[in-house]
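Example S7 (structure tokens).
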């Protein structure tokens, strides 16, 4: 039996809770990425092939809601369900919807900031006439060359790394909590760990 458990108490029968590490959580993220491919495709389409900011915003917001809503209602995304892990609060209790939104903060902040910068791109004259990836890229590149590298570009690129930075925090703590888990007081654990088993 391991003492590396939620509020460990040797008298409890559920003291064999195992915390999910970086590898299995990365696997769950890859599966979730595949689940979100239709939304990612729609975002790409409404950005580069048929520019439409309203549809871009709608599909972006729906994709941002996937993680907190799934975890708030089911305790897991499709990726976490497939890898047999779940998000729990202290005492191995289900998390609340507010905790799920709090732990999704890095993704929500990165997504909202990204949406804002997409809005700014949609203000570039002629962008609505872009017909495909190449033309879209040329219009944006020309605009950026005229404007020069701005603080906005650096900020956007930095904030996009928030989810990864948050996830890497789990490598440095015993209960494998990412920064967003620490913020929301949540843990990611295996659903059906074998008593006394090790990760």
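Recovered sequence:
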């Amino acid at each position: 039996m391991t003492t590396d458990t939620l509020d460990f108490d040797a008298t409890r029968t559920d003291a064999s809770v195992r915390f999910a590490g970086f590898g299995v959580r990365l696997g769950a993220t890859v599966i979730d990425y595949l689940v979100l491919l239709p939304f990612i495709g729609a975002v790409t389409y409404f950005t580069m092939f048929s520019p439409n900011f309203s549809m871009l915003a709608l599909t972006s917001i729906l994709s941002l809601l996937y993680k907190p809503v799934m975890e708030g209602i089911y305790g897991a995304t499709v990726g976490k369900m497939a890898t047999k892990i779940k998000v729990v609060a202290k005492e191995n209790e289900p998390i609340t919807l507010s905790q799920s939104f709090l732990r999704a903060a890095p993704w929500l902040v990165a997504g909202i900031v990204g949406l804002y910068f997409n809005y700014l791109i949609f203000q570039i004259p002629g962008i609505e006439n872009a017909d495909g990836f190449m033309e879209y890229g040329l219009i944006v590149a020309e605009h950026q060359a005229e404007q020069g590298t701005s603080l906005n570009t650096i900020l956007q690129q930095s904030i996009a790394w928030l989810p990864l930075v948050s996830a890497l925090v789990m490598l440095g703590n015993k209960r494998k909590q990412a920064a967003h888990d620490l913020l929301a007081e949540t843990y990611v654990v295996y659903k059906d760990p074998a008593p006394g088993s090790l990760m």
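Notes on this example. The chain has one domain: 22-190.
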